[in-house]
Amino acid sequence: MKKIVNLLIITILMVQFSAKAQHTEHKKVKNFSLKSWISPGEDYNSLDWKEKLKNYHKLGISEILVEVKHLNIDQLQEIVFMAKKERIRVHAWMWTMNRPGDTIANKHPEWYSVNREGKNSLENRPYVDHYQWLSPFHPGAREHVKDNVKRLMKVKGLASVHLDFVRFNDVILPVGIQPKYNLVQDHEMPEYDFGYHPLARQKFKSLFGIDPLDMEHPEMSDEWNQFRYNAIVSLVNEIVEMAHQKKMKITAAVFPFPELARHLVRQDWANFNVDAVYPMLYNQFYNQGIEWIGFATAEGVKLNRFSVYSGIFVPTFKEKPEDLIRAIRTARENGASGVTLFTADMLTQAQKEALISISKEIF
Of 106, 116, 242, 320, which is the most buried if we count CB atoms within 10 A? Predict the structure, then answer.
């Protein structure tokens, strides 16, 4: 029932958005940029990277968010220097709360998030094996996350430290993905509902006089949900404060728009103090069309808190490269400061040609 209500809300908002769009001239950003998330493999090769960076520049890409999972600091530093020669800025893309294979964290099972069934995310991984979520309620886990950011901040010339998975586990998957897991999530299932770390329950009880597990429907408690939102928000904002003291910017990959992000992954990014957000507007995951990308972009832009770079899932537009261009245009028309591809390495030759054809006009 709750899922149906949320779908109705989104539908109503979309109708209102469409009606407004017919009577309002959209804000267009002058310095609109093209970016891309980049996932390097385990075998780093500087010669390969030089070639990759040249190709990114030809496509009009001015910034890349480089996943640091398989890179050491020296390799990331070398990429920053090589990219500068191609007039490309580099962000360090870090997995924040989801830490698969983290050898330090693995020694501390008490750092990991706990679901409503009392199961620890390190030992009982939801959906997929690489979902191993730290708890924002454990001081040790919070310090470990900050230490990971501090390590990346040592790299000279970074555009930002880019926080990904800065949220809880998906309590509800996007509707288009649920069939992949043979799920119909029309309610919040206990095995996917995280945030019940003993420290969280203890602190909540001290404030409200009740353990969330003693509630009949804790997932319906506004206080308990807000309490969990706040745990991620406070960690992000502490990281931002720490980074800004060292003149380093912090950006974040987030779920499509604030209401949906809170509902699906308990992520209240509207209250992040980051320098920019990169909402992942993968419309096909939500069984939505291209107009939805504009709607979700506008929801972030109207907060007027940070720059918004609309994330676009390249494979969605594999068959129709012209739709990739439409997606970019609707993001621009709705106030995005740029678009971010997931990923440039997935682009077909037809998509590359389409991007190059509009690069002078848009980027």
Answer: 116
Cβ-contact 119, 191 below 8 angstroms? yes
String of DSSP letters for 105-123: GGG-GGGB-BBTTS-BTTT
Residue 328 lies in domain = 34-362
* Proportion of the chain above pLDDT 90, given as a percent: 89
The verdict on residue 147 lying in a domain is yes
What pTM does this model have? Answer: 0.92
Helix (H, G, I), strand (E, B) or coil at 289: coil
> For residue 232, is it within any domain?
yes
Whether 102 is covered by a domain: the verdict is: yes
CATH number of the domain where residue 358 is located? 3.20.20.80
Taking the chain (363 residues) in consecutive chunks of 10 residues, what is each chunk's mean pLDDT?
A: 47 48 49 96 94 97 97 97 98 98 98 98 98 98 98 98 98 98 98 98 98 98 98 99 98 98 98 98 98 98 98 98 98 98 98 92 84
Q: Give domain status of residue 57, yes or no.
A: yes
Angle at 58 between CA 57 and CA 62, to 5 degrees: 30
